[in-house]
UniProtKB/TrEMBL annotation:
Family as reported in the entry's similarity comment: Belongs to the glycosyl hydrolase 3 family.
Keyword Signal: yes
TM segment ranges: none
Top-level lineage group: Bacteria
Record's protein name: beta-N-acetylhexosaminidase
UniProt entry keywords in alphabetical sequence: Glycosidase, Hydrolase, Signal
The organism of origin for this protein: Micromonospora saelicesensis
Residues annotated as signal peptide: 1-28
PANTHER family in alphabetical order: BETA-HEXOSAMINIDASE (PTHR30480:SF13), BETA-HEXOSAMINIDASE-RELATED (PTHR30480)
Gene3D superfamilies for this protein: Glycoside hydrolase family 3 C-terminal domain (3.40.50.1700), Glycoside hydrolase, family 3, N-terminal domain (3.20.20.300)
Domain Glycoside hydrolase family 3 N-terminal as annotated: residue spans: 106-417
Lineage: Bacteria, Bacillati, Actinomycetota, Actinomycetes, Micromonosporales
Length: 577
């Protein structure tokens, strides 16, 4: 920034102090660092080899960190969003958005000016519970996403840290939070996977989906959601694998293994457990009232399972865990992120903040919030509401000593180590998108998820059928209609046996009193109020889920899923154990 030296400060001393940490994969339980200002433009200690073995990402990261200036170090811990569906050519509206966010016109300009370590691609749909902090959208179709990510990487390749690939992430959870939907294999929701109850099916499906993300140029997915659905949280809901910590843990481990096998970093979220509060951190600061012991046994098993599966990242949540650090959002809590997550649970990878443009993080100005988050133990600052202010705040804190250089070097080294690890696996080709093999993996998971909570197990519906839905779900009705027709079931516009679909956000008022079959395509709680003689759940409205539902309604498949959450007055399944 203006008036700031660009001379590289070689971080040899800090790197040497972290050598054991790095070679072991950035492990360790660092104590709270104390401010130790260091002069700019000086170096100390032996030089670090410029070209360490390619097989050792940690050593490569340490060597690269030692060459970076203050400005480069600060940029590497920032991962904002940007406006525009192209790296270098954007509309006037997108340029205005980027100017307000970062004082630049294009995403490529943003990367260059702030030496960014990553960028998140954003977007939302009507049923997306996270849309409150999605300021724009820059995902449309796979070809556009691939061109965008290629342009972003070209810009990042010119940076001093350009030998480490730019992190490009998105929230591709599947279900209600799915950024790229057209032309790709779309999995059923996490809750559907929980109902299927087979981590091997989950792993296979996520491997297929992860390969497609990698082909489009996305190398970190902010998924899987490791939150246990201990409450009727509408913001987490079907994004969770269920209410049983042990069962959810197996599913999370499968998703992590699938994603990372194809070169996409998995991110466990939202630590210490958003599903343990029914409140929404996109609106306020949820409070976790459980004891530390209750969180350890009831919220953290999926996180530890994901870590054991090798998850490269954990996302800190804007959550007030009263038993551990009352009044402090976990994103800014040294006790939770450093003492618990790293010290107690032993996490060795990258910690990423939840969106810093959400209300609990905006209680501080962008610069102060970024400094607080790093000092708490985060390594990446996600979606700051003002890139320039966050960058300047971090740089000033580094120079002034309130952000210890050792803490920043540690964070950047972890980020670069992850980048080099991701670069070891070649990305799949675009031709692999939505292949029959990938769709088969999604179909298998969706088919295993269909659950009957009332009525005979696997009995065909009496035809002809009329499909009805709650408001605004015409596309899903058309998808099921086509699937039923393909399965040999006659479908009429009216007058047939009514199969009624309800989804995200629906309640008792959205049920049909005339329906013979009611199907929950999100959390199944609404079925407790349904009077239909047959109640089914798919937990998802994806094409794979509607195809699986049609097979059950046609009597061609047995609904073998079990509800992963308790529905008052209904069993987990009527199909036995």
């Amino acid at each position: 920034m203006g008036g700031v030296s660009n001379r590289p400060w070689r971080a040899s001393v800090a790197v040497a102090a972290l050598t054991a940490l790095l070679v072991s994969g950035c492990s360790g339980d660092p104590e709270r660092p104390t401010p130790t200002p260091s002069p700019v433009g000086t170096s100390a200690g032996p030089s670090v080899p410029a070209t360490p073995p390619a097989s050792d990402p940690a050593s490569r990261a340490a060597a690269l960190v030692a060459t970076l200036s203050d400005e480069d170090l600060v940029g590497q811990v920032l991962m904002p969003y940007a406006y525009g569906d192209s790296a270098t050519k954007v509309s006037a509206g997108s340029a205005a958005g980027n100017q307000a966010l970062a004082g630049v016109d294009t995403p490529a300009d943003m990367i260059a000016k702030y030496r960014l370590g990553g960028l998140i691609l954003v977007g939302f749909s009507a049923d997306d519970p996270t849309k409150g902090n999605q300021e724009t959208t820059n995902v449309d179709n796979p070809k556009q996403v691939h061109e965008l990510t290629t342009g972003l990487r070209t810009a990042a390749g010119r940076l001093a840290a350009g030998s480490a690939p730019l992190l490009i992430g998105t929230d591709q959870e599947y279900g209600v939070v799915t950024r790229v939907t057209d032309g790709v294999t779309v999995l059923p929701s996490a809750l559907a996977a929980g109902a299927a109850g087979d981590p091997k099916l989950t792993e296979a499906a996520w491997r297929a989906a992860g390969a497609e993300l990698a082909a489009m140029g996305i190398n970190i997915d902010f998924a899987p959601v490791a939150d246990v659905l201990a409450t009727r949280s509408t913001v987490i809901g079907s994004r969770s694998y269920g209410a049983d910590p042990k069962q959810a843990a197996g599913q999370v481990g499968g998703a992590v293994r699938g994603l990372q096998a194809v070169g996409v970093a998995a991110t466990l979220k939202h630590f210490p457990g958003h599903g343990h509060s029914a409140d929404d951190s996109h609106q306020d600061l949820p409070v976790l009232t459980q004891s530390a012991a209750a969180l350890q046994s009831g919220a953290w098993p999926p996180f530890t399972a994901g870590m054991e599966a090798g998850a490269m990242a954990v996302m800190s949540g804007h959550l007030d865990a009263r038993a551990i650090d009352p009044g402090t959002p976990a994103t800014f809590s040294h006790k939770l992120l450093t003492d618990v997550l790293r010290g107690q649970l032993g996490f060795k990878g990258v910690v990423i903040t939840d969106g810093m443009n959400m209300p609990p993080a905006k209680r501080w100005a962008p610069g102060e919030a970024a400094v607080r988050a790093l000092n708490a133990g985060n390594d990446l600052i996600l979606m700051t509401p003002n890139v320039g202010q966050a960058y300047d705040g971090l740089l000033a804190a580094l120079r002034g000593g309130s952000l210890p250089r050792t803490r920043l070097v540690e964070a950047v080294t972890r980020v670069l180590t992850m980048k080099f690890r991701l670069a070891e696996l070649p990305a799949a080709q675009m031709s692999t998108l939505n292949t029959p093999e990938h769709r088969a993996a999604a179909d298998a998971l969706a088919a295993a998820a269909v659950t009957v909570l009332r009525g005979a197990c696997g009995k065909a519906v009496r035809g002809p059928v009329t499909v009805t839905t709650s408001g605004g779900r015409d596309g899903t009705r058309a998808t099921l209609t086509a699937a039923l027709t393909a399965a040999g079931v006659q479908v009429k516009p009216s007058g047939g046996t009514i199969v009624h679909l309800v989804g995200y956000g629906d309640g008792a008022k959205d049920l049909s009193p005339d329906a013979a079959v009611t199907v929950a395509m999100d959390t199944p709680y609404v079925l407790a109020d349904a009077k239909s003689p047959t109640l089914l759940a798919t937990y998802s409205s994806s094409q794979a889920s509607m195809t699986a539902l049609a097979a059950v309604l046609a009597g061609k498949a047995r609904p073998g899923g079990r509800s992963p959450v308790a529905v008052p007055g209904l069993p987990a399944t009527t199909c036995g154990t």
